């Protein structure tokens, strides 16, 4: 998987490469949805991440929200393929907690590829009620997008990453370790190079 900002940048790349009539805002809302499980113990990963088969870029008969959701899962798969192709996980500090840290570092590295975060922050803070089909309550739905809105409002640094991790039930106890690995990975030029390749090759 990728972290929240990266998924949004991937969606922007998709629309740049494949002009579409899909509602872009709703697509990005859906693209940012699957990891809501991190703030809701009642939602298992397989419920949000094994929803579409096959995982491809065919969005026929899907709503814009569903298309974005499917795109998120496609990018999770594609990202791992790209990193494995370049033997990313053979580099120092990229396994275990370092794997998760690399995702947040990627957010930091590619943040500037989008120049319209303010509009998206407003949209997330006012996320429209959307049928998700997996029983996530409106309160949880709205909370998730409020958390994301705060996280994406400026280029993430350790403080912003620490805050967003602390709000995710399954990650909160790992906060210090994740930040520690991010600090190490920032110093590795090869790590930075390969994380940039993900964005270049994802679609």
Write the layout of secondary structure elements.
Elements: H1 4-17, H2 24-31, H3 45-49, H4 64-85, H5 97-110, H6 117-125, H7 138-152, H8 158-166, H9 175-186, H10 189-201
Give an account of the 3D structure.
The chain has 10 helices and no strands. It is an all-alpha fold. The chain has one domain. Helix 2 packs across helix 4. The two termini are 15 Å apart. The mean pLDDT is 93.
Features:
single chain; 203 residues; 10 helices
Low-confidence stretches: none
**Care to count the β-strands?**
0
Describe the main β-sheet briefly.
none
Report the helical percentage: 55-70%
Summed up:
It is built from ten helices and no strands. The protein is mostly helical.
């Amino acid at each position: 998987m990728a972290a929240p900002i990266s998924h949004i940048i991937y969606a922007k790349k998709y629309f740049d490469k494949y002009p579409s009539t899909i509602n872009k805002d709703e697509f990005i809302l859906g693209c940012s949805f699957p990891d809501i499980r991190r703030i809701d113990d009642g939602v298992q990963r397989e419920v949000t991440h094994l929803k579409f088969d096959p995982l491809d870029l065919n969005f026929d008969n899907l709503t814009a929200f569903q298309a974005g959701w499917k795109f998120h899962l496609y990018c999770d798969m594609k990202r791992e393929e790209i990193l494995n192709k370049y033997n990313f996980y053979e580099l120092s500090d990229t396994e275990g907690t370092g794997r998760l840290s690399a995702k947040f570092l990627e957010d930091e590295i590619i943040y500037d590829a989008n120049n319209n975060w303010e509009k998206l922050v407003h949209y997330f803070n006012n996320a429209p009620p959307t049928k998700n089909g997996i029983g996530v309550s409106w309160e949880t739905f709205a909370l998730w997008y409020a958390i994301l809105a705060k996280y994406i409002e400026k280029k993430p640094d350790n403080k912003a990453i620490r805050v967003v991790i602390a709000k995710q039930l399954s990650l909160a106890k790992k906060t210090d370790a994740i930040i520690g690995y991010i600090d190490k990975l920032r110093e590795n030029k090869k790590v930075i190079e390969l994380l940039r390749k993900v964005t270049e090759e994802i679609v």
